[in-house]
Structures are given as structure tokens and as C-alpha cells.
Fold this protein.
Amino acid sequence: MEKRYLRNKAHRSRMRTFVKRVLKAVEAGDVETAREAYGKAVPVIDSMVNKGILHRNNAARKKSRLNARIKALVQSAS
């Protein structure tokens, strides 16, 4: 039980790090870096679903919100 908890905790931490990289790039106003970070974050989020750590709807919501922020950044940059 403890081993699974620690493994899941590590996976969750890794996912949050990738999400934060996207958010940091969006706040900096760097569209290219944000898109690149988003491209790296999506497979990590999806792997969380496959491992059973994250519900698929929760993952879809996270990806959707990140993508919406990037789109808003592109709109404001235009």
C-alpha cells in the first residue's frame, strides 16, 4: 500500500511539473514555448489515466483548460 502511494505521488508530482511549465510559458507570453510544453504535458497526463491515477474526464478537463489558455494567448498576441 505504501509503495503504491509513493509511486502514485511521484507520478502526480511529475504531471503537475509538466502542467506548471505550460502555465509558466503562458504567463510569460511565449506562445512557442507554451505549445512545446503542452505537447510534452499531454502524454504525461494521458499516462496518468492509463495508470489509473487520474480519471479520464479530469485529464480531459486539464488538457482542455491548458489548450484554452494557449489559444487565448495566441488571440491576444494577434
The helical segments are 2-28, 31-50, 56-77. DSSP finds three helices and no strands in the chain. The chain has one domain: 2-77. The domain at 2-77 is CATH 1.20.58.110 (Methane Monooxygenase Hydroxylase; Chain G, domain 1).
